[in-house]
Amino acid sequence: MLTVDNVSKKYGNVEILKCLTLEISPGEIMALVGPSGCGKTTLLRIIAGLENPDEGRVLIDGTEVSTKNKLVAPNKRSLSMIFQDLALWPHMTVEKNIEFVIKRDKLTRNNYRLKIDEILANVNLYGYNNRYPHELSGGERQRLAIARALASKPMYLLMDEPFSNLDTILKGELQDMVMELKDNFRIGIIYVTHNIEEVFVLADRIAIINKGIMEQIDYKEKVLNYPKNEFVRRLLKIR
Amino acid sequence: MDLPHLYLLPFLPLPWMGLIKVWNQPVVSIIYGSSFIVILGYIARFIPFSTIIGIAGLKQINPCLEEAAFLSTARWIKVIRGIVVPLSQKSLAIGFFFVFILSFGELSTTLLIIPPGRQTIPIKIYNLMHYGAHQMVAALCLILILIIFSFSGLFLLLYKKFTKNIRCSL
Questions:
Q1: Cβ pair A83:B74 closer than 8 A
Q2: Contact yes or no for A93/A129 (Cβ under 8 A)
C-alpha cells in the first residue's frame, strides 16, 4: 500500500499542496485529475522522492519514505515514473535505455540480452533495440517509456500525463496496454491526466485536486453518481 | 554574473602573477622550469571561457533526464558518466577546442612564464618583429594560420563524426 498522509508543499509563499491524503494498493489505477497548476505533478514528484514534503509523510508498505527531514532515495522505493515529456535518454539506443535501468541486477551479458528482449516484447518493441528515441514514432516512444519504467519491476508506477500528445487510436492502444500491465504485473498506478474520457476508461478510483486541496477521492462510479460539489461536477462534465 | 562563476574571479586579473608566486619555489621548481608551466598558464587564463561554454551546455540538459536516471540508480557517478557527460559532450568539446585555439595566439602570459630557452610561435614572431625581420614574421604568421586552420578542420571533422548521434533532446 502506498500512502500519502497529510502532505503539504510550498514554493516560496505559494501553497501548492494542502494536507493531501490518499492511498493506493497494488493492482489499482488511480487517476489524479485537476486543472493546470493544481499540484498534481508536485504530488507525483514528492511520491517519487524527487522532492521533500514540507509537512506530512509518504509511506510505502508501512515504511516512511518521505518526510520534511527524511528522503529515501528514489531508486529504493519500488516505484517508477513516466514523465510528461517521457525523459527518454536521447543519446542512448532503445536497448541502452533499458539496460541503464536493469544494470543493477548484475546479470551476465547473455541474460541481459534475453531480459531486454523480453521487456521490449512486452510493449511490442521487439527488434527496435538499436534505434535511437528520435528514430521512433510518438507511440513507440511512449511504449519505450513504459518499458523502461517497468524494467526495474516496480510495485507502483507514476504516470504524468503520458498520452497527452497522441491521437485517439494510439491512445486507445496504449490504454489497453496499461490495463494489461496492471493486470499482469499487479502494479499500482497513479495516473495524472486532463482527459476525462481517459479517466473513465482507465481508473478504478478518481482523486480530484483543486488548488492543492483534495476535493473528492472515490471509486469512479461513486464520483459520477455523487459528485461532492459543483467543481467536481464541472470538471468531470457531469450533468 | 552567476554565482558558480565567482570562484573564477581570482583567475581573471593577471593569472600569471599568481602562477609565478605559487610555482617559483624551490620545491616545485621542476614544474616552473618546464613547459608544463605554460600549459598551467593557459589553463588559468582561459578556463573561464571554457567553463562558461560548459555550463551553458549543462544548462541545456533537461533535468527530467537526470531525475529519470536517479529513479533507477542512486549512484551519482553513474548518472554523471551515463547521462550528464554524454549529453554535454558537444559543449565540452567546443570549450576544449576554443581554449586550444586561443592558446595558439597567446602572448602576454607566455612571455612572463615561459622557461628560458623555450619559445612558442607568437613569442618567436614578437622577437622577430622587434628585430625588423618582416619576411620571417610574415612566414611564421602564415604557418600559425595554417596550423590553426588545420586543427580547426580536423576538429570539425571529428566533431561531426563523434557527435552524430548525440542529441540533447528528442
A1: no
A2: yes
